[in-house]
Amino acid sequence: MKTNKDSARKVSSVVPYLRTSTDDRGQVPERQIEVIGPWAHREGLVLLDAVIDEGSSASKLNPFERPKFIEACKRAVAERAVGIVVECTDRFSRQGSKIDGWAEVELERRFNLKLFRADKTVNEHGSLTGDMADNLRALLGREWVKTHASKVKSGMSKARKDGKRVGRPPKPLTKAEVELVNAMRADGEGWRSIAHAVSTARGAFKVADPARRRALTVSHSHVRRVMEGRA
Description:
five-stranded parallel sheet, 2 domains, Rossmann fold, alpha/beta, 52% helix, single chain
């Protein structure tokens, strides 16, 4: 008869997937290792090199629509790891329990990998209480997105009525950045990849100060509006 201890012994290495969206206000993805690292030590796991996914929305894109998540999966397979580890459920998905559960099953079907969440032990994964906790957190994550969006829209509407400027300060692109965007578009790159490249060139991801980091970072929608003359 297989026991929980037998299952835990089979776990050897995992790839950390560190995701933040453009709405995380300067959060540094590496902070998630502060949670994942001690968890891996307690569970007797080996952490491989992390895959960092910045500017990727958990509420608009399911995990398999994110290039960096696919990269994490392929790295795990190449390194013969047993799974992907995320800090918690809403770092993986904020689209509700159905998408969260589907993606976990799909991860195993496509790549034969397990999904581990660092807010619970290895033995709690797949248990009744563990699955119930994941479902609840996924539902709460989706509701937070809806509530947050409603508050933002309401606030912006009031600001417009009061004659205030709404939105982030303008971030014009330099001539060199425009040339970079045009070159990447010619190569078939998407707007998210392009925005990430522009932000990287600006040194946004090397800045520790959250306010300065936000000032240097450009979103995919902003770059697109600038290039289409709508900014």
